[in-house]
């Protein structure tokens, strides 16, 4: 069983944050735009690339995180796998789930209130698909 689940996306506070909150049952797959906007860290422009954000513990006591990966999910995944080998840890201790495909290219424009609304409408339309991905990876 995985002890840590890490959701990856370019910003760490968009698709990965939504996926992590769906995983923790803090957000439903039919959530309103307002519910999405109220998530802690949602579209936070001060997020740090490469920093893990602890979102909570799931019902199986696994830690759930998000990670901002910019545009490099394959590099991050490979690095994590190699770190597990080097430290002689069981590769089942960490599960990486890439939700980057749910993040549009214009995510970098999230500082603008106009684009923030567009991004929120976009992610709201993807909730069912993200939920399916979460269910298939937990």
Distance between the termini: 9 Å
- Which geometry do the CA atoms define? globular
Element-level helix/strand string: EHHEEHEHH
The total of beta strands comes to 4
The major pleated sheet works out as: 4 strands, mixed
Number of individual domains: 1
Q: Which percent bin holds the helix content?
A: 25-40%
SS content category: alpha/beta
Radius of gyration: 14 Å
Portion in beta strands = 15-25%
Low-confidence stretches: none
- The quaternary organization reads as single chain
Mean pLDDT: 83
Please work out how many helical segments DSSP would assign. 5
**Cross-sheet strand order for the largest sheet:** 2-3-1-4
Describe the 3D structure.
The protein starts with a strand and ends with a helix. Strands 2-3-1-4 form a four-stranded mixed beta sheet, sandwiched between helices. It has one domain (4-136). It is 37% helix and 17% strand. The protein is built from five helices and four strands, in the order E-H-H-E-E-H-E-H-H.
Briefly summarize what is shown:
Pfam families: DUF3189 (PF11385). It comes from Desulfonispora thiosulfatigenes DSM 11270. The chain is of the alpha/beta class and 138 residues long.
List the helices and strands and how they pair.
Blueprint (H helix, E strand, L loop, with lengths): L3 E6 L5 H9 L9 H5 L14 E6 L5 E6 L4 H14 L7 E5 L14 H13 L1 H10 L2
Parallel strand pairs: 1-3, 1-4
Antiparallel strand pairs: 2-3
């Amino acid at each position: 069983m995985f002890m840590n689940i890490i959701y990856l996306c370019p910003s760490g506070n968009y698709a990965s944050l939504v996926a992590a909150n769906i995983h923790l049952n803090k957000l439903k797959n039919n959530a309103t735009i307002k519910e999405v906007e109220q998530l802690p860290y949602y579209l936070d422009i001060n997020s740090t690339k490469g920093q893990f954000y602890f979102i909570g513990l799931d019902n199986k006591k696994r830690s759930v995180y998000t990670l901002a990966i910019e545009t490099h999910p394959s590099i991050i995944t490979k690095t994590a796998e190699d770190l597990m080998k080097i430290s002689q840890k069981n590769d089942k201790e960490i599960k990486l789930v890439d939700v980057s495909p749910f993040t549009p290219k214009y995510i970098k424009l999230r500082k603008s209130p106009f684009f923030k609304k567009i991004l929120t409408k976009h992610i709201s339309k993807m909730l069912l698909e993200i939920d399916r991905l979460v269910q298939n990876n937990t």
